[in-house]
User: What shape does this take?
Amino acid sequence: MSATLPLANSLHRATLDALRRQAPFATMSEDEVLWLVQHVSVAYYARDAVLLEPSDTPPETLFIIKQGTVSGVTADDQTVFQLATGEMFPLGALLAGRGAANRYVAASDTFCYLLPAADFHTLLSRSAEFHDFCTRRIASLLEESQRAVQAEYALALDDDSRFARPLASLVQRAPLSTLAGTPLAEALGAMEAAQVGSMIVINEAAQPVGILTLKDVLARVTLAGVPLATPIADVMTPDPATLPADAPVADALVLMARQGIHHIPLVRNGRLIGVVSEKDVFALRRLSVEGITAAIARSDDPARLPALAHDIGDLAHSLLAQGMDAENLTAIISSLNDRLTERIITLESETDPALAGLRWCWLALGSEGRMEQTLATDQDNALIFSAADDAQRGALQAFALRVNHLLDACGFPLCRGGIMASNPKWCLSLAEWQQQFTQWIDHGSPDALLHASIFFDFRALTGDAALALDLRAWLNRAAQKNPRFLHQMAGNALRNRPPLGVVRDFVLSDDNAHPNTIDLKLNGATPFVDAARIFALAAGSPQTNTAKRLREAAHALHIPDTELADWNRAFHFLQLLRLRHQHGQQRTGVPPDNHLNPDTLNPLDRRILKEALRQARKVQARLAMDYKL
Amino acid sequence: MIWPFAKRLPALDATSSARREALTRQKADLRQPLAEMRWCVVDVETGGLDAQRDPLLAIGAVAIEHGRIALDASLEVGLLQAQSTAADNILIHGISGSEQRAGEAPHRAVLSWLEFAQEAPRVAFHAGFDQTVLQRAEREHLGISVSAPWFDAAVVAPLLFPDAAAHCRHLDEWLEHFGLAVYARHGALADAYATAELWLILLLAAQQEKITTAHQLRGLLRSRRWLSEN
Assistant: This one.
């Protein structure tokens, strides 16, 4: 306990404990939180009371919600967000020293802790954690969530039989061991010769009594200047954590994660029989991107491809468990699905004499076109060709139909809307595609806007990519020439509001099929995707990936880097939630979807979800500003 | 207002005596706006339910200033009990010295209480009990009588929320009614703080009923008492 604490009475203590249940107070030192406690006062606001009005002068206090809910309301009376227990406002205005932009109204009877602005700034300079949290709010929440997810997955290995096998099965060679008196020179020489990262020190009964790893050598031997004649016992880690040889692999994973160690000696009847390293455990994830890519390339039989598609799903699960971020993960899923689709197309087109001499290109649309596929994804594809007579056109459609069915067999269901290359409407020549796009751009009907959102994200998958590139170049010019169309697209995109609630935190679906849920795709990810598409079209960018589109647009639109980073983090958090949700469903045999009940999230993820949806509103606000909507 | 109670005040050490001298003799202005009023919300812990006899063990108090509970300046003081210092008593009750919350000599504890409260009107739940206990302690340990206005949240609450009054009698019930959480029930400071949160709600409700000063509130309470007693 620190020196200042005896001054704290039971009320200070209790307030401290309550605050420390929330980020960022949970990670701040006790002294810092206590300082905060001793500088706040508590105020009560009945429902509908105004806590803070928009103003030209910087706010005088930071509000931390003790109990209750507070709404942020715009000048035109729109409730744009809701804050709950533990949340703080108005952070942006306090940090920037400007007036609050929104009106803050108590949505229910509310108690708040009030911290004077001067004390807020003192706390910022006293506490690195608090500073970090306030300035990189979504980033620090995400880091915390990511750690929680990894821990959760490391423990939830029940579905994975690979982690149930005994550790002994991982041992590939006799362990490298030595006695306590061995000089370092000899022990390190043996490690070098055997090319292993650890030396186990044993006693006469072959029981492990210590361990020395290469990492230890740097600090304890080299930097410490310990002579190499020193016995290894002097620098080893004594009493290392061991596991029985027949313990399951999962135990090693958990032990390594908990203790932050990379090597575990295995014992049988107390005697050393082997060593497992972190590398051994992770190598067990037999599925690798390279492995699956090679297997797809080798596969000559379409009947074997569904099994590989299944492996892609398993790999995605495993990468998700290892804590891979959504941007990389969706890119990996998309690129493996690309390889698989390419292989199917190659197998089907090579054996089809009717296609000989034709120039065509398979187009990936929608999320695949954007390289943002999740685990639940149906087909969105199309075909473009240079010129063809009716017979050739028929042959292309027949070929596309075979590909569509094989993809279906691989777990990519046929598109319910018929957006597939086998559909005569979407198997067109370059000239016909130009006509089709022109019609959408000129009409701007709801139907046209819907199609635009799918087709404008096309990407050449396989075949003659020049056809797709020509179409893209033409389309960018056509779209830029027609600001009315972009304006309509923007208006359409803004109709899809992120579901932040007025009464509760979130607006839940009233759809009977998915009660009490929010649609993470439609209401979460889509606002980002839609805005990014419009930014890209306006800038004439050929990019189809949302994060990349936003990065390019940010430069052109002078959006600050920090804001851009928050947008992308928010978008990828929503994608990650979708992946985790779908993974959970697949584990329990439920067909994956995007309908999440926010009550199933832990409080931290709920808050990040709210923050992510708030970022979606910011992106939309930017769009509204650009298009004066 | 502070009046010497006895002709000869109890002999105090020099510091305490000076503190007693310095106690404010101002009278609270009950006609200032409710929202501006400084309130002192208090709760006592005693050795039993007899306000006239049972020993005062601890005082917890928080101040409401400008409509906000100030956390920094909250009072939590225990009174050193003469009998509990005896070693045999500790053995019987099994309370070790370190667990004795009774940190201060009674006269110093009561001085701390009066210095904290100043002339502010006192608020408590079932205030009659706290008032009796505290005034007795002021008399016994300092030989003075302090006449500050007392307000009873247990009387004000049913007046402003008659619908809830049917099922709310105890502090716990009112807290539950308003969804207020208490961190450690039945500690003097915890209860004083909970009462203070309740008082914030009551103050706001009073203002909505066009009661704008403590004076008006007291008038209303008096007329109600007269109505119920006659």
Q: What stands out?
A: The first strand of chain A starts at residue 41 and ends at 45. Chain A has four domains: 5-135, 166-283, 289-481, 492-626.
